[in-house]
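Question (not urgent): is this output format expected?
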Amino acid sequence: MGRMKFDVEVVSHGSLVSLKPRTKAGIEWVDEHLPADHLKFGGAVMVEWRFASDIVDGLVQDGLNVKVDGLGVD
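Got this back:
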């Protein structure tokens, strides 16, 4: 059985959350939906935890596969 391919990996780091696009679709979604001046770190977009759930909801609603770790959301 193959591993599931995630478009975006979301990881909580306490007060910040990283969103790391893993596919072309993930990169395009971030480019289209997040502000152009978003904070990047190591290939990931960093956002405050209070915005993360809404972003994850948007990703899922747009049909992307999202791996979430540590946010307390499904």
